[in-house]
C-alpha cells in the first residue's frame, strides 16, 4: 500500500532541504560550535565514532543482502537498492548545487574525504536503505536502525566527512529517497491474519469460533467479523501499524483546511482504541442507540483491538424499499440523544448508520467521536445524516424525517452546513453518483420550511479566495520592501544567512512576554474583576486571529465574546475593547512625542526617503514608503469617486455608520466609568507601555543577531510608529506594510538596507507569524474553559 506519511515525509524533506540550501555548504556558527564540542570530548569517544561510522555501512549492507537468502523476500533487495540509488543521485545533485563536485561526493561514499562534503553521502545512502526497510522488519530492528543512523551522522561530523549541516542534509535526502521508493513500489500493510486475530481475542478473554475478514475496510483499520463460543457475533477492529499514519495526516489536513479543527497528533494505536471505547461507553450510558462495546484492549502481541456487537446490516447495504420511515426517525433520534449528551459522532455516513440485530437503527464506530463537542461539530453530524438519508430515500422523505424528529428549528440550523467541506470522503463519493447536488437539497429544505435561504457557514479554512488574498498581500509586501529599500533578493538572503541563530532564539523566547503587558491593559479597561491568566490567554488567542482578520477587528470581536462570559452586555463589551485599543493608541502617540521632543536618540536621517547607506543601491529619486502609500490611497479615492456604484455605496454608508457610532456611544456609557478611576487608567497605560518596551527590546535583539545595535529610544520610536501606522491599514495584521515600515525605520537610523530588510522579516516572524502557534493552544484553552 501507499502510506500517507510517506507523502508527508517526502514533502517535509524537500522543504527542509530547500531551507538548508540557503546556508549550504557551511560551515555556519552552529556547525563550528558543534564541531568544537565534539573535539572537546575525551579521546576514548573517538573509538565510538569509528565504530558507529562502520556499523552504519554494515547495517545498510546487511539489510540489502539478507533478503537474497529467502526466495519470497528477494524483491526487497531490489526495493532497497532503488532507495539507495535515489539517495545517491539526490545527494550528488544537492551537493552539486552547493558547490561540491560529483566525484568528491561519490568518493565520500566509500572513504572519508579529505575535507567536509555537502551532502554526507554515506549517511544519505544508509539512511535510505534503513528507512525503506523499516516496514519490512520488526519494531526493535526499526528502533535500532534509527539509533544507527543518528550515531552514524554524528560520526560523519566527528571524522570531518561533513559539517553538521551536511550530515542533516544526508538524513533528509535518505528519508526522501525512502519515501519515493515506498510511493513507487508500495510497502507492507502490516495486517494480521485470521489466526492472529483469534489469538488476540483470546488474550482479551473472548473465545472465537470463527473469524472472517469484513467487506468494508478503512485505511489503517482492519475489520473482522467473529462468531464467539457463547453464540454472539462481534465486529472486531484491529488498528494496524499505519493507523497512526492515517490519523496523523488526516488530522493535520483537517486542521489546515477546516475552521475550528485542531490537530490531534499524540495518540498511538492503544490510545485510539481507548478513545473509541470511552466514547462508545459514554454514548451507551446516555441511552444512545449504538452497537454496544464488548471488549477493548491490547493483546499480548501488542495489537490494539476493540470488539463491539455486530450489526445486522449497514445503511449502505439496505435496499431503498426496505428503509421505512420508522428506521429514518430512529436514526435521527439516536443522533439527537447523542447531541443532547453534549457529544458528536464525527463519522456519520452510510457505513456507520446501521441496523442492529434487534431491528433498531443505531450509530456505529465512534473512533472520531467527541465527548465535549461544539455546536458546529453537532451541526456537521446533522448535515451528514441528512445527506446520507437523502442519498438513500430522496429529498422529500429525508427532510420529512428530520423535520419530525429535529423540528423546524433543528433542520434550519443544519442548512448552513450543507456543503462539501462538511461531508466525509465516502459521502462525497456517493454524491457524485446521483443527479442532484447539495444546492438542490438546500433549496428543497428551504421550500419545505418556507424560510429564506441562510448563508453557508464558513467551514473551509483554505479557499481560492484566501489563497489569492495571501498571494496579493505577499506581492504587495515584496513590492513595498523592494521599492523602498532598493535591495535585491540575493543580498537579503546573504544577510539572513549571517544571522546568529542563538540570538534569534532568545528573541523568540522573549516574544510571548509581550502579551503580559497587553493583558494588564485589558484588565484596566473594565471595572469587572478579571483573573489574569484567562486575560493573558485572551491576548495569545488574539494573536491567533490576527493572521486572518485585521488586528483591531480581531481584538474587538474576541474581547466582546470574552466579556460576555462575565455578564457584560455586548455594547459595553465593545466599549471596553475600544477603550483598551484607544489607550494603546494614546501611549503610542505619547511615546513618539516624548522621544522627538526630549532629545533622546531618534532618526538620524529622513524616513521619507531612502537611506544614504553605502550598502544601499538606491538613489534619492527612489520613491519612499509614505509616498507610495499616499499615491495608492489617492488612486483608491479617485476611483471610488469616479465609479458611480462605488461612490453611491460610500455615501450611502455614511448615515448608517454615523447612526451606529451614536448607538454604540449611548449603549457603552457604563464602560466609560472606568475613566473615572485613576488606578484603572494607570493599569492600562502601564500595560501598554510595558508591551511597547518589550517589543522594542525584541526588535533590538533581532538587530543584534545581525551584528548591529541601536539606542532603546530609537527602537521604541520605530516600533511604535510602525505599529500605529500598520494598525490603520486595512490589511490583515499589517502584513507587508509593517515589514516595509520596519525596513524604513531601521534604514533611518543608519542600518544598511539588506540588514534592515532581514531584521524586519525576522522581527515579524518572532512577534507575528510564529505566535499564532501558541495562540491556537490558548484559543483551545479558552474554549475548553468556556471563556469564549
- Helix/strand/pairing class, anyone? mainly alpha
- What is the averaged pLDDT score? 81
**DSSP summary, beta strand count:** 8
Distance between the termini: 43 Å
Gyration radius from CA atoms, angstroms: 31 Å
pLDDT under 50 segments (min length 5)? 608-625
Strand content: 5-15%
Biggest β-sheet: count, sense, barrel?
5 strands, antiparallel
Structural features, described:
There is one protein chain. This protein is mostly helical and 788 residues long. The chain folds into four domains: 4-185, no CATH class; 194-278 and 291-309, Phosphorylase Kinase, domain 1; 315-449, Transferase(Phosphotransferase), domain 1, CATH 1.10.510; 498-784, no CATH class. Helix content is 62%, strand content 5%. It has 30 helices and eight strands. The chain has a five-stranded antiparallel β-sheet, with helices on both faces. Strand 1 (208-213) and strand 2 form a beta hairpin. Helix 20 (514-524) runs antiparallel to helix 26 (678-704) and helix 22 (551-564) packs across helix 23. The longest helix has 29 residues, at 570-598. The radius of gyration is 31 Å and the shape is flat. The protein starts with a helix and ends with a helix.
Summarize the structure.
With 788 residues, the protein is mainly α. It has 30 helices and 8 strands.
What are the salient characteristics of this protein?
single chain; 788 residues; Phosphorylase Kinase, domain 1; Transferase(Phosphotransferase), domain 1; five-stranded antiparallel beta sheet; 30 helices; flat
